[in-house]
Amino acid sequence: MFQNDAIRALDRQESLRLLAKVPVGRVVYTRQALPAVLPINFSLDTDASVLLRTSPDSHLVRAIDGVVVAFEADEFDAATRSGWSVVVTGRATVVTDPAEHERLSQAGPTSWMPLRDAVFVRIESEMVTGRELRGTSGTQ
């Protein structure tokens, strides 16, 4: 079996630590029976769930509320051929509890897009996987 020391699996804790360091990721979901990927800024909540802040009228909210989605974020350096990628898979739900909505309005993510009325979407971190690509030297 081929062993590749350039790629290392990350445990849940290390994956979440890296995920918390970047501001933008991609939510992967199904839209009209086709795969869809949408870049979006996010934050992690205290329970390690991914939090999104978006418009209540968005196609994203209608497509993901109550279904299992994937969320991916990464960081790579092309010059050193190194970086990492983390995927969180879990059920996405719109936050409807008024107290929780108020808490997230203060401590949750801010949208990079102007929003009149915002909703928060929580993606439970039911499965967290990560990989690190260690820099390689030499040419192909």
Task: Give your account of this protein's structure.
This protein has 140 residues and is α+β, with helices and mostly antiparallel strands. The protein starts with 6 loop residues before the first strand and ends in a 7-residue tail after the last strand. Strands 1, 2, 3, 4, 5, 6, 7, 8 and 9 form a nine-stranded antiparallel beta sheet that branches. It is globular. A hairpin with a 4-residue loop joins strand 6 and strand 7. The model has no long low-confidence stretch (mean pLDDT 90).
Unreliable stretches, pLDDT < 50, 5 or more residues? Answer: none
Query: Can you tell me the overall shape?
Result: globular
Percent helix: 10-25%
**What sequence of helices (H) and strands (E) makes up the elements?**
EHEEEEHEEHEE
What would you call the structural class?
alpha+beta
How much of the residues is beta strand, in percent? 35-45%
Q: Note the total helix count.
A: 3
Largest β-sheet summary: 9 strands, antiparallel
How many DSSP E strands? Answer: 9
Care to give the gist of this entry?
The chain is an alpha+beta fold.
Supply database-style keywords.
globular, nine-stranded antiparallel sheet, 3 helices, single chain, 140 residues, alpha+beta
What are the SSEs and their pairings?
Layout: E1 7-10, H1 12-19, E2 24-31, E3 34-41, E4 43-44, E5 50-54, H2 59-64, E6 68-77, E7 82-94, H3 98-107, E8 119-123, E9 127-133
